[in-house]
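Limitations

Structures in this collection are predictions, not experimental determinations, and the ligand pose is part of the prediction. Treat each record accordingly. The example that follows, with uridine-5'-diphosphate as the small molecule, is included so readers can see exactly what is and is not provided: the inputs are given verbatim, and the output is the predicted complex.
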Amino acid sequence: MDTYDYLVVGAGLFGATFAWHAKQQGKRVLVIDKRTHAGGNVYCRSVEGINVHAYGAHIFHTNDTPIWEFVHRFARFNRYTNAPVANYKGELYNLPFNMNTFYQLWKVTTPAAAREIIQKQIESLHIEEPTNLEEQALKLVGTDIYEKLIKGYTEKQWGCKATELPAFIIKRLPVRFTFDNNYFNDRYQGIPEGGYNRIIDGLLEGVDVRLNTNYFHDRDAFNRIAKKIVYTGAMDEFYDYRFGELEYRSLRFEEEILPTDNYQGNAVVNYTEASVPYTRIIEHKHFEFGTQPVTVITREYPEAWRKGSEPYYPINNTLNNNRFKQYQTLAQQETHILFGGRLAEYRYYDMHQVIGSAMVMARKELEFLK
Ligand code: FAD
Ligand code: UDP
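Predicted complex:
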């Protein structure tokens, strides 16, 4: 019954990257996905000639030259640099936290003056080793920035107190004492010209793909169809939730076409006060410097997750991480099943990390780089 060498469950970046490598090695691969399209969360939908990031804004960035070169096999990248603006009660601030932000907050014009203000605020708090996001944020940038640009956004994004969140989440954001609004520190950054589907189409070229196909709807048959399975879905679902659910934060996207060529002048505007129900508004055309006469915007509303709703962000608190370790112990005993990607690894992974992780798995599994 082994028609294929590999069955890949999930046509997201992890599954597609693994499938591409396996195909290069002459393996027979079938990729299935329960959605109506491939690409997982990087999928783009064309609306009025604009590539709409259907599952939230996606900006590619990496420090890793082989990964950057790898994605260039499939698409050219433009020079887009993410520089979101924060709107707090109608006032605008540059992100990430940099000299422009400090000037907007305190009218300071030198790094020394900005450092002095932040240092004074931090010292008055006496935080030794931060144990949660709030303490970590306060220790990084002090009270003013925390209150205006972090607390409200974070608590609505995650649906809990910042004191209940792990510190690592806020370390994603750079703090710098130069006038530099680049949201990322990585050497490479851009948006694939023509959208992310180009990359997915390239990765899956020549590979058998079945959409609208849920592994769990015919698990026994799928287990027989290939010698090995690469599973990129949720880990708890794979083991029928026997140790309990791994929790996520979900999102709701509200999309609007507006009869203007430029609604907000930037691809990403964050709304950092607690009373605005959405976290950000994305104006998709700006990712590709679009000149269309109309525009498409998406408001991103964080939502509670329950079994069955779309799992966007893993909630990596102690309870969930311990649960995940229990699942991982089972997964490590599997001989025919490999697990990878943001759902199966229950990790807050960026795209380049998912690609890197799939490359490592492919290399190990296929042994093509000896
Ligand atoms: P996914 O893309 O989730 O793919 C998994 C696939 O498996 C899905 O298509 C799903 O339908 C399928 N599947 C699951 N279960 C089954 C089943 N039982 N049967 C069949 N198919 C199944 N990263 C960046 O680098 N830059 C960004 O700017 C960025 N922005 C983001 C914004 C948001 C709102 C979110 C949520 C993520 C963002 N990311 C960003 C992260 C990025 O989306 C992920 O790193 C990447 O898409 C994960 O790929 P994946 O293949 O692991 O998972
Ligand atoms: N964050 C914030 N204010 C902002 C943007 C981000 O406090 O204006 C915090 C928030 O806790 C968020 C984290 O920083 O969850 C990481 O932000 P990032 O933009 O990397 O999140 P993503 O794009 O993955 O949703």
